[in-house]
Protein backbone atom coordinates (compact mmCIF):
# COMPACT_ATOMS: atom_id res chain seq x y z
CA UNK A 1 0.00 0.00 0.00
CA UNK A 2 1.54 3.27 -1.14
CA UNK A 3 1.18 6.32 1.11
CA UNK A 4 -0.21 8.96 -1.23
CA UNK A 5 -0.50 11.75 1.35
CA UNK A 6 1.68 14.83 1.04
CA UNK A 7 2.11 18.06 2.91
CA UNK A 8 2.25 21.17 0.80
CA UNK A 9 3.62 23.87 3.09
CA UNK A 10 1.15 23.06 5.84
CA UNK A 11 -1.70 21.96 3.59
CA UNK A 12 -2.33 18.26 4.29
CA UNK A 13 -3.42 16.52 1.08
CA UNK A 14 -4.70 12.93 1.02
CA UNK A 15 -3.38 12.53 -2.53
CA UNK A 16 -0.77 14.53 -4.46
CA UNK A 17 -3.32 15.59 -7.11
CA UNK A 18 -5.23 18.89 -7.08
CA UNK A 19 -7.20 20.82 -9.67
CA UNK A 20 -5.82 24.04 -11.13
CA UNK A 21 -7.46 27.41 -10.65
CA UNK A 22 -9.82 28.49 -13.41
CA UNK A 23 -10.40 24.97 -14.68
CA UNK A 24 -12.57 23.61 -11.89
CA UNK A 25 -14.91 26.49 -11.04
CA UNK A 26 -15.55 26.59 -7.31
CA UNK A 27 -15.31 22.85 -6.79
CA UNK A 28 -18.90 21.70 -7.35
CA UNK A 29 -19.55 22.27 -11.06
CA UNK A 30 -18.32 18.85 -12.17
CA UNK A 31 -20.23 16.99 -9.45
CA UNK A 32 -21.35 13.63 -10.82
CA UNK A 33 -18.54 13.36 -13.35
CA UNK A 34 -15.61 12.43 -11.07
CA UNK A 35 -14.55 10.69 -7.87
CA UNK A 36 -13.68 13.45 -5.37
CA UNK A 37 -11.88 11.01 -3.05
CA UNK A 38 -8.97 11.03 -5.51
CA UNK A 39 -8.46 14.79 -5.12
CA UNK A 40 -5.98 16.03 -2.52
CA UNK A 41 -7.34 19.55 -3.00
CA UNK A 42 -9.40 21.67 -5.33
CA UNK A 43 -8.31 25.17 -6.28
CA UNK A 44 -11.06 27.74 -6.60
CA UNK A 45 -11.24 30.20 -9.46
CA UNK A 46 -9.54 33.56 -8.71
CA UNK A 47 -11.27 35.71 -6.07
CA UNK A 48 -10.82 39.42 -5.52
CA UNK A 49 -12.48 41.89 -3.18
CA UNK A 50 -15.25 43.08 -5.52
CA UNK A 51 -17.14 41.48 -8.42
CA UNK A 52 -15.25 41.55 -11.71
CA UNK A 53 -16.87 41.14 -15.16
CA UNK A 54 -13.96 39.53 -17.01
CA UNK A 55 -13.13 40.07 -20.68
CA UNK A 56 -15.32 40.32 -23.77
CA UNK A 57 -16.05 37.34 -26.03
CA UNK A 58 -14.42 35.43 -27.63
CA UNK A 59 -12.50 34.28 -24.59
CA UNK A 60 -10.75 31.20 -25.94
CA UNK A 61 -9.24 29.49 -28.95
CA UNK A 62 -8.30 25.84 -29.29
CA UNK A 63 -4.81 25.40 -30.76
CA UNK A 64 -2.68 22.33 -31.56
CA UNK A 65 -1.49 20.98 -28.22
CA UNK A 66 -3.58 23.26 -26.07
CA UNK A 67 -5.87 26.14 -25.44
CA UNK A 68 -5.39 29.90 -25.39
CA UNK A 69 -7.73 31.68 -23.00
CA UNK A 70 -8.43 35.21 -21.91
CA UNK A 71 -11.33 34.76 -19.51
CA UNK A 72 -10.13 37.72 -17.48
CA UNK A 73 -10.84 36.44 -13.96
CA UNK A 74 -14.61 36.96 -13.99
CA UNK A 75 -15.92 36.52 -10.47
CA UNK A 76 -18.47 37.63 -7.92
CA UNK A 77 -16.11 38.93 -5.22
CA UNK A 78 -15.19 37.79 -1.72
CA UNK A 79 -18.58 38.43 -0.04
CA UNK A 80 -20.50 36.22 -2.43
CA UNK A 81 -17.72 33.65 -2.31
CA UNK A 82 -17.85 33.36 1.48
CA UNK A 83 -21.62 33.72 1.90
CA UNK A 84 -22.86 31.57 -0.99
CA UNK A 85 -20.14 29.71 -2.87
CA UNK A 86 -18.23 28.06 -0.03
CA UNK A 87 -21.37 26.88 1.85
CA UNK A 88 -22.69 25.53 -1.47
CA UNK A 89 -19.47 23.59 -2.07
CA UNK A 90 -19.58 22.12 1.46
CA UNK A 91 -23.26 21.28 1.06
CA UNK A 92 -23.06 19.72 -2.41
CA UNK A 93 -19.81 17.77 -2.30
CA UNK A 94 -19.76 14.91 0.17
CA UNK A 95 -16.40 14.71 1.99
CA UNK A 96 -15.35 17.85 0.15
CA UNK A 97 -11.60 18.01 -0.48
CA UNK A 98 -9.73 20.96 1.03
CA UNK A 99 -9.96 24.10 -1.03
CA UNK A 100 -7.02 26.24 -2.06
CA UNK A 101 -8.46 29.71 -2.67
CA UNK A 102 -6.79 31.55 -5.52
CA UNK A 103 -6.74 35.31 -4.90
CA UNK A 104 -5.83 38.38 -6.90
CA UNK A 105 -6.25 42.14 -6.76
CA UNK A 106 -5.37 45.50 -8.21
CA UNK A 107 -3.08 46.48 -5.35
CA UNK A 108 -0.96 44.87 -2.64
CA UNK A 109 -3.48 46.15 -0.08
CA UNK A 110 -6.30 44.39 -1.90
CA UNK A 111 -4.47 41.04 -1.89
CA UNK A 112 -3.85 41.48 1.84
CA UNK A 113 -7.48 42.34 2.53
CA UNK A 114 -8.80 39.30 0.63
CA UNK A 115 -6.32 37.11 2.52
CA UNK A 116 -7.50 38.59 5.81
CA UNK A 117 -11.15 37.89 4.99
CA UNK A 118 -10.38 34.29 4.02
CA UNK A 119 -8.33 33.75 7.15
CA UNK A 120 -11.13 35.06 9.37
CA UNK A 121 -13.64 32.85 7.57
CA UNK A 122 -11.38 29.82 7.94
CA UNK A 123 -11.62 30.19 11.72
CA UNK A 124 -15.36 29.41 11.48
CA UNK A 125 -17.42 26.73 9.76
CA UNK A 126 -15.80 27.47 6.38
CA UNK A 127 -12.49 26.32 7.83
CA UNK A 128 -13.62 22.80 7.06
CA UNK A 129 -12.70 23.52 3.43
CA UNK A 130 -10.78 26.81 3.24
CA UNK A 131 -7.31 25.46 3.95
CA UNK A 132 -4.85 27.46 1.85
CA UNK A 133 -4.40 30.62 -0.18
CA UNK A 134 -2.84 30.71 -3.64
CA UNK A 135 -1.69 34.18 -4.56
CA UNK A 136 -2.02 34.73 -8.30
CA UNK A 137 0.76 37.11 -9.35
CA UNK A 138 0.85 35.91 -12.91
CA UNK A 139 -2.46 36.08 -14.78
CA UNK A 140 -1.63 37.40 -18.25
CA UNK A 141 -5.20 38.45 -18.97
CA UNK A 142 -5.92 41.32 -16.62
CA UNK A 143 -3.89 44.48 -17.10
CA UNK A 144 -4.05 45.98 -13.65
CA UNK A 145 -4.04 42.78 -11.68
CA UNK A 146 -1.69 39.98 -11.04
CA UNK A 147 0.83 39.91 -13.79
CA UNK A 148 2.77 43.06 -12.94
CA UNK A 149 3.27 41.87 -9.34
CA UNK A 150 4.91 38.73 -10.57
CA UNK A 151 7.37 40.42 -12.90
CA UNK A 152 9.45 42.38 -10.38
CA UNK A 153 11.12 40.36 -7.59
CA UNK A 154 11.08 43.26 -5.12
CA UNK A 155 7.38 44.03 -5.70
CA UNK A 156 6.68 40.32 -5.40
CA UNK A 157 8.50 40.11 -2.06
CA UNK A 158 6.51 43.06 -0.70
CA UNK A 159 3.23 41.54 -1.87
CA UNK A 160 3.96 38.13 -0.36
CA UNK A 161 5.07 39.74 2.87
CA UNK A 162 1.90 41.89 3.07
CA UNK A 163 -0.31 38.83 2.53
CA UNK A 164 1.78 36.83 5.00
CA UNK A 165 1.07 39.40 7.72
CA UNK A 166 -2.67 38.86 7.29
CA UNK A 167 -2.87 35.09 7.12
CA UNK A 168 -2.00 32.02 9.10
CA UNK A 169 -3.25 29.78 6.29
CA UNK A 170 -0.68 28.00 4.14
CA UNK A 171 0.39 30.61 1.59
CA UNK A 172 1.15 29.42 -1.92
CA UNK A 173 2.40 31.85 -4.58
CA UNK A 174 1.60 31.11 -8.23
CA UNK A 175 4.51 32.22 -10.36
CA UNK A 176 4.72 33.51 -13.90
CA UNK A 177 6.62 31.30 -16.37
CA UNK A 178 7.78 34.17 -18.57
CA UNK A 179 10.67 35.54 -16.50
CA UNK A 180 14.37 35.41 -17.38
CA UNK A 181 15.50 33.75 -14.13
CA UNK A 182 12.87 31.96 -12.04
CA UNK A 183 15.25 31.69 -9.07
CA UNK A 184 14.96 35.43 -8.33
CA UNK A 185 11.18 35.07 -7.94
CA UNK A 186 11.49 31.90 -5.91
CA UNK A 187 13.82 33.71 -3.50
CA UNK A 188 11.47 36.69 -3.34
CA UNK A 189 8.66 34.35 -2.25
CA UNK A 190 10.92 32.76 0.34
CA UNK A 191 11.92 36.13 1.76
CA UNK A 192 8.32 37.28 1.77
CA UNK A 193 7.30 34.30 3.91
CA UNK A 194 5.53 32.01 1.42
CA UNK A 195 4.90 28.40 2.46
CA UNK A 196 4.83 26.93 -1.05
CA UNK A 197 5.03 27.77 -4.74
CA UNK A 198 2.72 26.85 -7.57
CA UNK A 199 3.84 26.87 -11.15
CA UNK A 200 3.34 27.42 -13.96
CA UNK A 201 0.61 29.84 -14.90
CA UNK A 202 -0.32 30.04 -18.58
CA UNK A 203 2.26 31.28 -21.08
CA UNK A 204 1.35 34.58 -22.80
CA UNK A 205 0.10 33.75 -26.27
CA UNK A 206 -1.80 35.05 -29.29
CA UNK A 207 -3.89 33.55 -32.08
CA UNK A 208 -4.65 35.41 -35.31
CA UNK A 209 -7.52 34.86 -37.73
CA UNK A 210 -5.68 35.41 -41.01
CA UNK A 211 -8.84 35.77 -43.10
CA UNK A 212 -10.16 38.58 -40.93
CA UNK A 213 -6.63 39.81 -40.11
CA UNK A 214 -7.72 40.16 -36.51
CA UNK A 215 -6.75 38.57 -33.20
CA UNK A 216 -9.13 35.70 -32.39
CA UNK A 217 -9.51 36.72 -28.75
CA UNK A 218 -11.36 39.91 -27.85
CA UNK A 219 -8.55 40.62 -25.36
CA UNK A 220 -6.13 40.22 -28.34
CA UNK A 221 -3.75 38.08 -26.27
CA UNK A 222 -4.28 35.30 -23.78
CA UNK A 223 -2.55 32.49 -21.94
CA UNK A 224 -1.55 29.13 -23.40
CA UNK A 225 -2.29 26.01 -21.38
CA UNK A 226 -2.52 22.31 -22.16
CA UNK A 227 -0.29 19.53 -23.38
CA UNK A 228 2.12 21.76 -25.29
CA UNK A 229 3.38 23.67 -22.24
CA UNK A 230 4.29 20.60 -20.17
CA UNK A 231 8.03 20.34 -20.98
CA UNK A 232 8.47 24.08 -20.35
CA UNK A 233 6.74 23.68 -16.99
CA UNK A 234 8.91 20.68 -16.02
CA UNK A 235 12.03 22.74 -16.68
CA UNK A 236 10.81 25.62 -14.53
CA UNK A 237 9.85 23.29 -11.66
CA UNK A 238 13.30 21.67 -11.92
CA UNK A 239 15.04 25.07 -11.76
CA UNK A 240 12.85 26.28 -8.89
CA UNK A 241 13.34 23.12 -6.84
CA UNK A 242 17.10 23.45 -7.10
CA UNK A 243 16.86 26.98 -5.74
CA UNK A 244 14.57 26.39 -2.75
CA UNK A 245 13.26 24.03 -0.12
CA UNK A 246 9.74 25.39 -0.50
CA UNK A 247 7.33 22.67 -1.65
CA UNK A 248 6.02 23.08 -5.19
CA UNK A 249 2.54 22.47 -6.59
CA UNK A 250 3.30 21.81 -10.26
CA UNK A 251 0.91 22.31 -13.15
CA UNK A 252 1.01 22.70 -16.90
CA UNK A 253 -0.14 20.03 -19.32
CA UNK A 254 -0.82 17.15 -16.93
CA UNK A 255 -2.92 14.70 -18.97
CA UNK A 256 -1.82 11.43 -17.41
CA UNK A 257 0.24 9.96 -14.58
CA UNK A 258 3.52 10.09 -16.48
CA UNK A 259 3.16 13.86 -16.91
CA UNK A 260 2.57 14.16 -13.17
CA UNK A 261 5.48 11.86 -12.24
CA UNK A 262 7.84 13.97 -14.35
CA UNK A 263 6.86 16.94 -12.20
CA UNK A 264 7.38 15.01 -8.96
CA UNK A 265 10.81 13.77 -10.06
CA UNK A 266 11.74 17.32 -11.09
CA UNK A 267 11.00 18.46 -7.55
CA UNK A 268 7.26 18.99 -7.11
CA UNK A 269 5.47 17.84 -3.97
CA UNK A 270 2.06 17.76 -5.63
CA UNK A 271 0.57 18.35 -9.07
CA UNK A 272 -2.57 20.00 -10.42
CA UNK A 273 -4.57 19.00 -13.45
CA UNK A 274 -6.07 21.87 -15.40
CA UNK A 275 -6.97 22.00 -19.07
CA UNK A 276 -7.13 18.17 -19.27
CA UNK A 277 -10.23 18.24 -17.07
CA UNK A 278 -12.16 19.93 -19.89
CA UNK A 279 -11.59 16.88 -22.07
CA UNK A 280 -11.94 14.28 -19.33
CA UNK A 281 -13.53 15.42 -16.05
CA UNK A 282 -12.25 12.32 -14.26
CA UNK A 283 -8.61 12.73 -15.35
CA UNK A 284 -7.40 13.69 -11.84
CA UNK A 285 -8.46 10.30 -10.49
CA UNK A 286 -6.66 8.47 -13.29
CA UNK A 287 -3.52 10.51 -12.63
CA UNK A 288 -3.76 9.65 -8.93
CA UNK A 289 -4.16 5.90 -9.61
CA UNK A 290 -1.29 5.97 -12.09
CA UNK A 291 1.04 7.62 -9.57
CA UNK A 292 0.18 4.93 -7.01
CA UNK A 293 0.92 2.19 -9.59
CA UNK A 294 4.24 3.79 -10.46
CA UNK A 295 5.27 4.00 -6.80
CA UNK A 296 4.38 0.35 -6.29
CA UNK A 297 6.28 -0.75 -9.41
CA UNK A 298 9.39 1.23 -8.48
CA UNK A 299 9.40 0.36 -4.78
CA UNK A 300 8.47 3.75 -3.38
CA UNK A 301 6.38 3.29 -0.23
CA UNK A 302 5.45 6.95 -0.09
CA UNK A 303 4.72 9.34 -2.95
CA UNK A 304 6.70 11.93 -1.01
CA UNK A 305 9.85 9.95 -1.83
CA UNK A 306 9.38 10.82 -5.52
CA UNK A 307 9.91 14.52 -4.93
CA UNK A 308 13.19 15.48 -6.54
CA UNK A 309 14.14 11.80 -7.01
CA UNK A 310 15.56 12.55 -10.44
CA UNK A 311 18.87 10.78 -10.99
CA UNK A 312 20.58 13.85 -12.27
CA UNK B 1 -24.92 14.96 -14.71
CA UNK B 2 -22.83 11.99 -15.76
CA UNK B 3 -19.98 11.27 -18.15
CA UNK B 4 -21.34 8.27 -20.00
CA UNK B 5 -19.93 5.81 -22.52
CA UNK B 6 -22.50 5.79 -25.29
CA UNK B 7 -22.67 3.41 -28.21
CA UNK B 8 -23.55 4.95 -31.57
CA UNK B 9 -26.73 3.35 -32.94
CA UNK B 10 -27.31 5.45 -36.02
CA UNK B 11 -25.37 8.10 -37.94
CA UNK B 12 -26.64 9.34 -41.27
CA UNK B 13 -26.46 12.31 -43.59
CA UNK B 14 -29.80 14.09 -43.82
CA UNK B 15 -28.94 16.64 -46.46
CA UNK B 16 -26.09 18.85 -47.56
CA UNK B 17 -23.68 19.05 -44.62
CA UNK B 18 -26.23 17.97 -42.01
CA UNK B 19 -26.09 14.76 -40.03
CA UNK B 20 -28.26 12.92 -37.56
CA UNK B 21 -26.58 10.88 -34.81
CA UNK B 22 -28.24 8.57 -32.27
CA UNK B 23 -26.48 7.03 -29.29
CA UNK B 24 -27.47 4.73 -26.47
CA UNK B 25 -27.52 6.43 -23.05
CA UNK B 26 -30.37 5.12 -20.88
CA UNK B 27 -29.74 7.22 -17.74
CA UNK B 28 -29.22 10.40 -19.71
CA UNK B 29 -32.23 9.82 -21.93
CA UNK B 30 -34.40 9.68 -18.81
CA UNK B 31 -33.08 12.86 -17.24
CA UNK B 32 -32.65 15.16 -20.29
CA UNK B 33 -35.19 17.88 -20.87
CA UNK B 34 -35.80 19.99 -24.01
CA UNK B 35 -33.23 22.73 -24.63
CA UNK B 36 -30.50 20.99 -22.67
CA UNK B 37 -27.31 19.87 -24.37
CA UNK B 38 -24.63 17.19 -24.23
CA UNK B 39 -20.83 17.66 -24.40
CA UNK B 40 -19.24 15.09 -26.70
CA UNK B 41 -15.64 13.90 -26.91
CA UNK B 42 -15.01 13.40 -30.61
CA UNK B 43 -13.00 10.16 -30.86
CA UNK B 44 -11.15 10.91 -34.09
CA UNK B 45 -9.74 14.21 -32.81
CA UNK B 46 -6.46 14.20 -30.87
CA UNK B 47 -6.88 12.84 -27.33
CA UNK B 48 -6.48 16.27 -25.73
CA UNK B 49 -9.06 18.03 -27.94
CA UNK B 50 -11.86 19.92 -26.22
CA UNK B 51 -15.35 18.47 -26.23
CA UNK B 52 -18.08 19.77 -28.52
CA UNK B 53 -21.55 20.79 -27.29
CA UNK B 54 -24.71 19.67 -29.12
CA UNK B 55 -28.37 20.42 -28.47
CA UNK B 56 -30.51 17.35 -28.05
CA UNK B 57 -32.93 16.58 -30.90
CA UNK B 58 -34.72 13.90 -28.91
CA UNK B 59 -34.28 11.68 -25.88
CA UNK B 60 -36.51 8.65 -25.34
CA UNK B 61 -36.41 4.88 -24.96
CA UNK B 62 -32.81 4.88 -23.76
CA UNK B 63 -31.62 6.76 -26.83
CA UNK B 64 -30.40 10.32 -27.34
CA UNK B 65 -30.19 11.96 -30.76
CA UNK B 66 -28.45 15.06 -32.03
CA UNK B 67 -28.66 16.86 -35.34
CA UNK B 68 -25.58 18.78 -36.44
CA UNK B 69 -24.06 20.72 -39.28
CA UNK B 70 -20.43 20.31 -40.29
CA UNK B 71 -19.08 23.76 -39.48
CA UNK B 72 -15.51 23.22 -38.24
CA UNK B 73 -12.77 20.83 -37.23
CA UNK B 74 -14.77 19.10 -34.49
CA UNK B 75 -17.92 18.43 -36.47
CA UNK B 76 -15.83 17.39 -39.52
CA UNK B 77 -14.09 14.80 -37.34
CA UNK B 78 -17.43 13.66 -35.92
CA UNK B 79 -18.49 12.75 -39.48
CA UNK B 80 -16.21 9.70 -39.37
CA UNK B 81 -17.91 8.16 -36.32
CA UNK B 82 -19.46 4.80 -37.19
CA UNK B 83 -22.36 2.77 -35.84
CA UNK B 84 -20.97 0.70 -32.97
CA UNK B 85 -18.33 3.27 -31.95
CA UNK B 86 -18.43 4.42 -28.34
CA UNK B 87 -18.51 8.11 -27.49
CA UNK B 88 -17.88 9.85 -24.16
CA UNK B 89 -20.87 12.07 -23.53
CA UNK B 90 -21.25 14.48 -20.61
CA UNK B 91 -24.81 15.42 -19.77
CA UNK B 92 -27.52 16.48 -19.26
CA UNK B 93 -26.17 20.03 -19.27
CA UNK B 94 -27.62 23.52 -19.21
CA UNK B 95 -30.89 25.21 -18.51
CA UNK B 96 -33.54 24.30 -21.08
CA UNK B 97 -36.99 25.45 -22.25
CA UNK B 98 -40.08 25.44 -20.05
CA UNK B 99 -42.32 22.60 -21.22
CA UNK B 100 -45.58 24.28 -20.41
CA UNK B 101 -46.86 27.19 -22.45
CA UNK B 102 -49.46 29.89 -21.91
CA UNK B 103 -51.43 30.05 -25.17
CA UNK B 104 -50.08 29.11 -28.60
CA UNK B 105 -46.53 27.74 -28.68
CA UNK B 106 -44.71 29.52 -31.49
CA UNK B 107 -41.41 27.77 -32.25
CA UNK B 108 -38.88 29.47 -34.53
CA UNK B 109 -35.86 27.60 -35.87
CA UNK B 110 -33.09 28.41 -38.30
CA UNK B 111 -30.99 25.64 -39.90
CA UNK B 112 -29.83 23.08 -37.33
CA UNK B 113 -31.45 25.29 -34.67
CA UNK B 114 -34.55 23.13 -35.12
CA UNK B 115 -32.82 20.38 -33.07
CA UNK B 116 -33.87 21.41 -29.53
CA UNK B 117 -37.24 22.59 -30.87
CA UNK B 118 -38.09 19.06 -31.96
CA UNK B 119 -37.53 17.72 -28.43
CA UNK B 120 -39.56 20.68 -27.12
CA UNK B 121 -42.42 20.17 -29.60
CA UNK B 122 -42.73 16.54 -28.62
CA UNK B 123 -42.74 17.42 -24.90
CA UNK B 124 -45.36 20.15 -25.42
CA UNK B 125 -47.57 17.85 -27.45
CA UNK B 126 -47.34 15.01 -24.96
CA UNK B 127 -48.22 17.36 -22.10
CA UNK B 128 -51.47 18.20 -23.89
CA UNK B 129 -50.48 21.49 -25.53
CA UNK B 130 -52.84 21.63 -28.50
CA UNK B 131 -51.53 24.54 -30.54
CA UNK B 132 -47.87 24.15 -31.47
CA UNK B 133 -46.57 25.91 -34.57
CA UNK B 134 -43.04 25.90 -35.92
CA UNK B 135 -41.51 28.43 -38.29
CA UNK B 136 -38.46 27.00 -39.99
CA UNK B 137 -36.08 29.16 -41.98
CA UNK B 138 -32.99 28.59 -44.07
CA UNK B 139 -31.04 29.98 -46.98
CA UNK B 140 -32.38 27.32 -49.29
CA UNK B 141 -34.60 24.21 -49.31
CA UNK B 142 -31.73 21.96 -48.16
CA UNK B 143 -31.43 23.96 -44.92
CA UNK B 144 -35.00 23.16 -43.84
CA UNK B 145 -34.51 20.18 -41.55
CA UNK B 146 -36.76 17.59 -39.91
CA UNK B 147 -39.90 19.09 -41.47
CA UNK B 148 -41.65 15.70 -41.69
CA UNK B 149 -40.70 14.89 -38.10
CA UNK B 150 -42.51 18.02 -36.92
CA UNK B 151 -45.53 17.28 -39.10
CA UNK B 152 -45.78 13.76 -37.71
CA UNK B 153 -45.88 15.23 -34.18
CA UNK B 154 -48.99 17.18 -35.24
CA UNK B 155 -47.17 20.52 -35.34
CA UNK B 156 -48.26 23.18 -37.87
CA UNK B 157 -45.22 23.87 -40.01
CA UNK B 158 -44.43 27.19 -41.75
CA UNK B 159 -41.42 27.42 -44.04
CA UNK B 160 -39.31 30.26 -45.37
CA UNK B 161 -36.17 30.34 -47.53
CA UNK B 162 -34.01 33.29 -48.60
CA UNK B 163 -34.05 32.08 -52.21
CA UNK B 164 -37.70 31.01 -52.32
CA UNK B 165 -36.83 27.39 -53.17
CA UNK B 166 -39.33 26.24 -50.51
CA UNK B 167 -42.05 28.03 -48.55
CA UNK B 168 -42.20 31.81 -48.31
CA UNK B 169 -39.37 33.69 -50.05
CA UNK B 170 -37.80 35.82 -47.35
CA UNK B 171 -37.05 35.58 -43.66
CA UNK B 172 -38.58 33.17 -41.17
CA UNK B 173 -39.99 36.19 -39.34
CA UNK B 174 -42.24 36.92 -42.36
CA UNK B 175 -44.65 33.99 -41.83
CA UNK B 176 -44.15 34.39 -38.07
CA UNK B 177 -45.31 38.02 -38.19
CA UNK B 178 -48.41 37.02 -40.21
CA UNK B 179 -49.39 34.50 -37.56
CA UNK B 180 -48.58 36.85 -34.68
CA UNK B 181 -50.81 39.51 -36.29
CA UNK B 182 -53.62 36.98 -36.57
CA UNK B 183 -53.22 36.02 -32.91
CA UNK B 184 -53.23 39.65 -31.80
CA UNK B 185 -56.47 40.30 -33.74
CA UNK B 186 -58.20 37.53 -31.85
CA UNK B 187 -56.53 38.37 -28.53
CA UNK B 188 -54.80 35.01 -28.53
CA UNK B 189 -51.98 34.48 -26.04
CA UNK B 190 -48.68 32.98 -27.17
CA UNK B 191 -45.09 32.27 -26.19
CA UNK B 192 -42.05 32.23 -28.48
CA UNK B 193 -39.31 29.58 -28.43
CA UNK B 194 -36.33 30.04 -30.72
CA UNK B 195 -32.99 28.52 -31.70
CA UNK B 196 -30.86 29.43 -34.71
CA UNK B 197 -28.42 32.07 -35.94
CA UNK B 198 -27.96 35.21 -33.80
CA UNK B 199 -29.70 37.71 -36.16
CA UNK B 200 -32.78 35.47 -36.22
CA UNK B 201 -32.71 35.08 -32.44
CA UNK B 202 -32.44 38.82 -31.96
CA UNK B 203 -35.40 39.39 -34.28
CA UNK B 204 -37.50 36.85 -32.38
CA UNK B 205 -36.42 38.15 -28.96
CA UNK B 206 -37.48 41.69 -29.92
CA UNK B 207 -40.95 40.37 -30.77
CA UNK B 208 -41.33 39.15 -27.17
CA UNK B 209 -39.52 41.92 -25.28
CA UNK B 210 -41.79 44.55 -23.77
CA UNK B 211 -44.92 42.58 -24.58
CA UNK B 212 -47.16 40.38 -22.46
CA UNK B 213 -45.81 37.35 -24.28
CA UNK B 214 -42.79 35.47 -23.08
CA UNK B 215 -39.90 34.50 -25.31
CA UNK B 216 -37.35 31.75 -24.72
CA UNK B 217 -34.16 32.01 -26.71
CA UNK B 218 -31.55 29.24 -27.02
CA UNK B 219 -28.07 30.69 -27.62
CA UNK B 220 -25.25 28.88 -29.42
CA UNK B 221 -21.77 29.73 -28.08
CA UNK B 222 -18.36 28.10 -28.31
CA UNK B 223 -17.73 26.35 -25.01
CA UNK B 224 -14.84 24.84 -23.09
CA UNK B 225 -16.12 22.99 -20.02
CA UNK B 226 -19.90 22.93 -20.58
CA UNK B 227 -20.57 22.82 -16.82
CA UNK B 228 -20.01 26.39 -15.60
CA UNK B 229 -16.42 25.93 -14.44
CA UNK B 230 -14.40 27.97 -16.93
CA UNK B 231 -16.48 31.08 -17.82
CA UNK B 232 -15.62 30.98 -21.54
CA UNK B 233 -19.13 30.92 -23.08
CA UNK B 234 -20.44 34.28 -21.99
CA UNK B 235 -23.76 35.79 -23.01
CA UNK B 236 -24.43 39.38 -21.98
CA UNK B 237 -27.66 39.63 -20.00
CA UNK B 238 -29.35 42.13 -17.71
CA UNK B 239 -27.55 40.35 -14.87
CA UNK B 240 -24.12 40.89 -16.47
CA UNK B 241 -21.91 38.25 -18.07
CA UNK B 242 -23.91 35.03 -17.84
CA UNK B 243 -22.54 31.60 -18.69
CA UNK B 244 -24.34 30.13 -21.69
CA UNK B 245 -23.69 26.58 -20.43
CA UNK B 246 -25.41 26.88 -17.04
CA UNK B 247 -27.53 30.04 -16.93
CA UNK B 248 -28.40 29.16 -20.56
CA UNK B 249 -28.37 28.01 -23.25
CA UNK B 250 -32.05 29.01 -23.01
CA UNK B 251 -32.53 32.57 -21.73
CA UNK B 252 -35.65 34.68 -21.28
CA UNK B 253 -35.88 37.05 -24.24
CA UNK B 254 -36.06 40.19 -22.10
CA UNK B 255 -32.92 39.20 -20.18
CA UNK B 256 -30.68 39.16 -23.26
CA UNK B 257 -28.47 42.12 -24.09
CA UNK B 258 -27.58 42.32 -27.80
CA UNK B 259 -24.22 43.77 -28.86
Question: How does this structure look, described?
Answer:
The complex is a heterodimer of chains A (312) and B (259). In chain A, α2 (108-122) packs parallel to α3, α4 (182-192) packs across α5 (230-243) and α6 (257-266) crosses α8. In chain A, 32% of the residues lie in helices and 21% in strands. The model of chain A has no long low-confidence stretch (mean pLDDT 96). Chain A has eight helices and 16 strands. Chain B is an alpha/beta fold. Chain B contains six helices and 16 strands. In chain B, the strands form three sheets. Chain B has a seven-stranded antiparallel β-sheet. A seven-stranded mixed β-sheet of chain B has the order 11-10-9-8-12-13-16, with helices on both faces. A two-stranded antiparallel ribbon of chain B has the order 14-15. Chain A binds chain B through residues 22-25, 29-34, 45, 51, 53-54, 57-60, 62, 64-67, 69, 71, 74, 226-227, 255, 275-282, and chain B through 1-3, 41, 46-51, 88, 90, 221-222, 224-225, 227-232, 234, 240-241, 246.
Amino acid sequence: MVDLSVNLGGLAMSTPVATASGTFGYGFEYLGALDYSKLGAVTAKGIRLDPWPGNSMPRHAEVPGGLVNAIGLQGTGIDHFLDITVPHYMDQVKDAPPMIVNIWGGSIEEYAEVAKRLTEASQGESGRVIRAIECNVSCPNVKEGGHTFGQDPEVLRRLVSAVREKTTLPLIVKLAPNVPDIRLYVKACEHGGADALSMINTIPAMVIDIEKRRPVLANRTGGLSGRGIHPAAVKLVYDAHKATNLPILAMGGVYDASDAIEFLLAGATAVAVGTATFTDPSVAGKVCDGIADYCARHGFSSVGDLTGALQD
Amino acid sequence: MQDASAKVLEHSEIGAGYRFLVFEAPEMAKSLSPGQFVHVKVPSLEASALRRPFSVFDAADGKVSILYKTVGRGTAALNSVKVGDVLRVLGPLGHGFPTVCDGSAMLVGGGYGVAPLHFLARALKSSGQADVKIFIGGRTKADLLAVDRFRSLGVDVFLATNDGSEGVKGLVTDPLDDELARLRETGGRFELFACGPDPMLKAVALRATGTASRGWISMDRHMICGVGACYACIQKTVRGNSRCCVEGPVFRAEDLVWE
